[in-house]
Amino acid sequence: MTTLMARFKQRMRRFAQKPGSVDLAPFQAMLADVEKHADAFKAFSDEELTEHATKLREKSTDTELVALTREAAERAIGQRPFDVQVLGALGMLSGLVVEMATGEGKTLAGAMAAAGFAIKGKRVHVVSVNDYLAQRDAEWMRPLYGLLGVTAGWINGSSKAEERREAYQCEVTYAPVSEIGFDILRDRIVTSPDDLIVPEPEVALIDEADSVLVDEARVPLVLAGSTSAEAADPVIADLVKRLRQELHYEIDDEERNVFLTGAGSEAVERALGEIDLYSQEHVTSTLSKVNVALHAQVLLHRDVDYIVRDGKVHLINDTRGRVAKLQRWPDGLQAAVEAKENVQTTESGEILDSMTVQALLSRYPTRCGMTGTAVAVAETLREFYELEVLVIPPNKENIREDEHFRLYATLEQKEDAIVEEIKTVHETGRPILVGTLDVAESERISSKLRAAGIECVVLNAKNDAEEASIIADAGSHQRITVSTQMAGRGTDIRLGGHEGEDHDRIAELGGLYVIGSGRHSSSRLDDQLRGRAGRQGDPGGSVFFSSMQDDLITQYAPDAEDPSEVDNDGRVHDKGLLHTFEHAQRVAEGVNLEIHRNTWRYNKLIEHQRDILLKHRDVVLRTDAAFEKVGEKEGVSDEVASDAARKITLFFLDDLWTHHLTFLSDLREGIHLRALARQNPLDEFHREAIPAFNKIVPESWELTREKYEAAKITDDGYDLADAGVKRPSSTWTYLVHDNPFGSGLEESMKGLVKMVRGQRR
Ligand SMILES: Nc1ncnc2c1ncn2[C@@H]1O[C@H](COP(=O)(O)OP(=O)(O)OP(=O)(O)O)[C@@H](O)[C@H]1O
């Protein structure tokens, strides 16, 4: 009877669990095992604890490890991890992505897991999303690692090579995902094994896992070498400013493509001195420049896609609402936006190598992670990373009240209603956080508030330096904070001010009230924003406002019907339309998944080729393989000859790979034309990419032999640069912002949206 009952209970539990996640029950059962060790560890002195951790290295169970790290956390950090944090740590040690709500203490749970892996003898990279968090979390958790005898370090964008090497030597290294990628890319071109920095990847513990593994997975990290920048043509930039929508150009529904009309082409041809844009001479140069300039002018919006600060164009990361440091568009587009804004062209350069975030993280044999929102992307995590999600319940029950969203006919009516709502709630003294979709909207709403005599604080990509102090006060009495998605993640808003001094009064008022000024393109972003209220069992509330003119509708559900039940203030009550938003969000998510899938299909082959080439390169780097291939050189010692042969070979391998990447990228750009010719574009891509790759190594030997014979090499030295074996004088790194223009994939966006819309119906 009892077993039947237990089985029933377990089934009920599973039934109640979120779909797409793994069963929590076995982990809950492990809690009792963790408890068994508790008393013994409590009795240890600090020295005994450290010693025990060292002994555990060989043989240990996860429960014992977690019990030990819990004891160490209490002593070193002054916080005894809650059971939910213990569950989180156990989940990560089992290679899962754990979903833990906002403010549940993921930083500590992550550190317990990282320490556990380290004690088991694995090197861990705690992958953060930015410099600030990498440093903050590493320093915050350092005493915990110290007590467990585990070494820990961190890296940020300003770390010097030596500091990086030292940090990577630690058992646990906190680093932003982009910095790890850049280090790997730089390691790709070293000519002496002593210059290598990043050790073999073992465990990646990924913070904000959905954001890194899904939203940013396609972002290419780039290593570029010096060549001169190609400036955009100011005449063309000026010319497109004078073109008019509908008459000279048209924009497609999804606002991803812009096309010249007949009249537009004629106007451009006239302005450029009666040229023929479609002639052989102009079609690839002038016409494509005009298209890129038009794209920069019409589709990329200042204060939405980028801001201009200190005479520079700074891109905005659209899921985080903050400046995307180090990020740029592909070269032509970057220069065109700079020309549009009349700022100096930034240096571009030849792309020596690049890899996506997904490829980077796929290198780790063990991966795990944590985030507030994982279940919604469980399918994607499984498909691309073979990762499963474990949902951890909150420490204290969530009592936040989430209202149903309010829909308005026009943007104007929506914003007026938001201002009204703020006014009413503000009178009670309750703190309000308004989350906006972009910088421009945060500025519009704040100026409307000020015009109504209401003070508010704005947080967006333009004043990100003040972030910490703004967030520290966002939960205080009467405070109104208007923020882009910056406040959506990783920010801990305490009720009643920084130290929670006024907590009880604010709690009585109902806690933090979150107002979303629009639904995001992904429900996860909505959830992240809502999650700022009601942390750790606090009271709180949330509501979202939307309008039929929001991008989500115009882009992903353009055929939505006009509302029929509308109040005087524009509030819409049509039931069907309320569902349209959920539908549009699912379409947007579906389109992103499809793009991700498609990009990965191509990238998989490139990654496979990179892997093969790198293995070969490593042999050349570490052995005398090159010398054995090209033979002795008369009058030169074997040591010098081997060194020269190695350097020449590495040069050609790298150079040929760079060219191969350009070839692949051009191939991909053009591949959609094959689709028109009814060939499968991916098959076509493989058909050309594989033989091209297979030529690289033989060609590198051939070129090496020629150069080696011709080069003047003596025991006193040699100058390979003199012989044309010349590496870029400087290199730098950046991230490429999604190219919304020109690739075959985007050309077929329209079809993709239609297809996904059809599937989701
Ligand atoms: N076991 C604990 N006991 C007491 N306080 C804790 C404990 N664990 C974490 N905290 C506190 O809870 C707060 C939130 O922790 P943390 O920032 O790690 O949360 P989070 O889960 O990362 O939230 P977010 O989703 O906002 O990133 C911190 O102030 C931390 O000091």
TrEMBL record:
Domain of life of the organism encoding this protein: Bacteria
Catalysed reaction, written as an equation: ATP + H2O + cellular proteinSide 1 = ADP + phosphate + cellular proteinSide 2
Domain (Helicase ATP-binding) ranges: 87-247
Annotated region (Disordered), positions in chain: 520-539
Membrane topology: Peripheral membrane protein
Enzyme Commission number(s) from the entry: 7.4.2.8
Functional note: Part of the Sec protein translocase complex. Interacts with the SecYEG preprotein conducting channel. Has a central role in coupling the hydrolysis of ATP to the transfer of proteins into and across the cell membrane, serving as an ATP-driven molecular motor driving the stepwise translocation of polypeptide chains across the membrane.
Subunit structure: Monomer and homodimer. Part of the essential Sec protein translocation apparatus which comprises SecA, SecYEG and auxiliary proteins SecDF. Other proteins may also be involved.
Protein name per UniProt: Protein translocase subunit SecA
Organism of provenance: Lentzea cavernae
